[in-house]
Amino acid sequence: MIPRVHKMGTRTVGLLYYLYGPGTHEEHTDPHLVAAWDDLAPDPGRNPDATYADLQRLLDQPVEALPAKERPAQHVWHLSVRAAPEDPILSDEQWADIARRMVAATGIAPDGDAAGCRWAAVRHADDHIHIIATTVREDGRQARLRQDGKRAQAEARQIEIDYGLRRLNTGDGTAAQRPTSAERHKADRQQRERTPREELRETVRRAVAGAQGEKEFLDRLASAGLLIRPKVAPSGDLLGYSVALSDDRNKDGEPVFYSGTKLAPDLSLPRIRERWAATAAASVHGEDSPADAPLRSVPGPATARRAATTAAWQAVLVFDGGDDEVIAAQIAAAGEVLDALAKTSAAHTRRQLGEAAFAFERASRSHVRAARGHDRALRQAARDLVHGGPALGRGEDGASTAMLIDMAFFLVTAAAAWHGKKEHAQQAAAALQAAEHLRAAYQAAAGHPMAVLHQRGRLLPPALQRRHAAVLREAVPELAEQVLAEAGWPALASTLADAEAAGHDPAGLLVQAAGRRELDTASSVSDVLVWRLRRLAGLPADASAMPLHSTTPDQQSRSHTNGPADTRRDGRNRTRRY
Fold first, then answer.
1. pTM, to two decimals
2. Is 309 in the same domain as 277?
3. Per the structure, how many domains does the chain have?
4. From residue 136, how far is each of 72, 100, 111, 314, 339 by CA, in Å?
5. What is the tens place of the pLDDT at every residue in 507-542?
């Protein structure tokens, strides 16, 4: 149940005309009173003899009783209370009870206070009511409404328990503005899956992902087909921007524009500039390229995904002991990576990755202010993904996509755990929702490359299979039996053979891959180890073009040098570590 305190108003009758009227887009049906301060209050919706003016005069009587100079300029209080989409349709009697509880909790009409404010609850849809009140009490004093929104939220949580409704998490003021009822009804009529506000927010987020300056950002918005209305100072400097969908028009046929602030708190131009400023500051110290500078080189989709996997791994490690502000920056930049990945994903993963990015948007903002600058690696990864272009979904592109999704899953679950510790309930729930979408996207992306690795593992000579099983038991004894029992073990055995053929110490790689981060959230530990080992050893994510291993390990060539040096053997056959 979602209560929302609206801005204070000056005209009681104006709000009544809206509540009892047809609505902006004819969405109001059967407007009527469900409860009021007085059971005999007139109801213009059901009583043909009652008028809006009748109800307005009664609501405003305590205000009008004050001397003119003592009347508050803004005296009209307005609260809407909406049920969740999956909740059952409540009766008028149930909404009446909810209205009484809300006016009591917020201080409009406290229980047992005969001198409380006058109020009325109007229902004009199945899923919500509006409560209108005048803030001058019967005794002439002003109602004490401090933190009325917070108190309404607390009461809503208790109402959810009492009525068996969906349990929502209390907001903290950092969420993006929800679509209005009118926007939702309009989207339904036009058979849109999302409202224009939500579509615009998603498109702008993707345009921001990895962008390094105003020109690149605005060019991306234009390329996405949005109408752009810049706000320019007399000096010519850009002060802000508004965007619209070309096919979203008002009743006069004009485009409906939304400013960045109306889309999400972190999509205002000043907040976006904070990301660019951190990149520009880093470039002064030679750490990164200047804002709006062209990429030094344009990576291919597979290369961009491997680099993003490494950046995501490094970000995951920050959660183990980083400052909150640094972690918040990593989470915000992780959202950019998800947006860029969804934008460039192949068709069979596009929907789930898009849903993951859409859900994670809520997890990317909290009251912990991100320390911009510490997120350069992830922001560069997002930029590389965008400029690397769409992946085809097969070969090295498809396999490296699976590798990145696997690592992104651990980054998102780490974000969920951090938000949980900070009691950021909405953000933690959003991150967990994003993780489930990533899990589904991984299943779609990993099917073919894992099947190839599985088949290669099944074709390994039995002696080689037994040898790598022994290596697994020696390196990670706490995981060995679980991994050996998983369907993915042959793929891991094949990867261990590939790593050894490339000159690496498989045991050292296993220790490094398993020792740095928990694996409890993994559906398949062997899958996770496959991708971590292939990244650490610099092996191709797609093994279909690699030769099969038909000889014993001691006969295999040690001449390959790709992959990190910390797991290669030195001349005395010992693993070097750095």
1. 0.75
2. no
3. 4
4. 8, 18, 17, 57, 49
5. 999 999 887 666 777 889 999 999 999 999 999 999
